[in-house]
Structure formats: structure tokens, C-alpha cells
Amino acid sequence: MATVQRLTDRKRDAILQAAIAEFRANGFETTSMDKIAARAEVSKRTVYNHFPGKEELFAEILMQLWTSSAEQHALSYRHDKPLRLQLLELMQSKMRMLSDGNFLDLARVAIAATIHSPERTQDMVAKLGEREEGVNTWIAAAQADGRLKPADPAFAAHQLQSLLKTFAFWPQVTLGQPPLAMALRQQVVDSAVDMFLAYYEVAGKTR
What we know:
Layout: H1 2-30, H2 33-40, H3 44-50, H4 54-69, H5 83-98, H6 101-116, H7 118-130, H8 133-144, H9 153-168, H10 170-175, H11 182-200
Helix pairs in contact: 1-2, 1-4, 1-6, 2-3, 4-5, 4-6, 4-7, 5-9, 5-11, 6-7, 8-9, 9-11
């Protein structure tokens, strides 16, 4: 039984790696489940046994890239830890994801697919958006603890993360610029966190 499971896992991994290569090389619209199956050296039926369709497969790849790049344990709010240190961990984790070459390549594919066929990719983009919820949850917890001003957590999280994406996502995805150098990454993270706390942190609460 264990051997069968390992074989199944290996086939699934092969499908994912093949899909990444196909999407990066050919884009979302041109890539087919047939091409993915051929590159993975499995049957088309095997691909469909693991993934219902191309949209679900692409969404899974994006979410795996997030998981491998982000330290999920850092998303838990700590009432006994300075806000600034916690936010720095959160945003450094986010920055690592935004600096991942695979993620940036596939983000270009996702954006192009959304522009070309928005009705087909709405669910895919929504699933990726679910991975942003950790920052919302952290902000809501800090608000409940009285350390951040009341505001819509999703709005505040979007503001914070947009400060990073302005430098470390959109120029790379839309203009083909290289990922930021390490020193500049840290500068962007530090300034984003400080700007966020300058507005949202409750006066008198230590960082």
C-alpha cells in the first residue's frame, strides 16, 4: 500500500513539475493537459485523476509556490511580542515569495490568462487570493488586542502588501525587471512596516 502511495505521489510531483515547465514556456492558453501529460510521461487520464482541469492545476502550482516561500508559522499573532518585529517577519516572508523566480514567471502567466479570459480564471485567482488571508488574520488579532486602530483588516492588509508589490512585484511582472537586491528588499520591508505602524499603531503601545 505504501509503495502504491509513493508511486502516486511521484506521479503527482511529475505532473506538477511538467505543468510548471509548460506554463512558463508556453503560457496558460497554449498549454494543454495533453502536453503536460507528455512532458510528465504519464497518461492524460492520470493527469485528470489528480487535477480536474488546467485551472485547478495552475492554482495548485501557485499555492505550492506560496507555501514553499512563506513561513506559515510567522503568521500567528503574538500578544507578547513587539508589533514591529512580528510585521517584519510577515513582510520578509512575503518578500521571499515575491522574489521567487518561479512565482514571478507564473504570476505573469496568470495575469495574461486573466486578461485574455477572465471568466475562466476567476476561480484560479480567487484561490490564490485565499493565501493572502494570513495577513488579514494577523491584523484582526492585533486590532482585537487593542494594539492597532480599528479598520477593515482586508483593506489594511492590502495597503501594507501593496507597499511591497510596488517595488518587488509589478515592475518584475509587467516590465521584466530583475528581483530586488537583498539590501533593497530589506529597505522596502523596513519602510513599509514603519509606514504602516505610523498610521495604524495605537498611540502608547510599544512596538
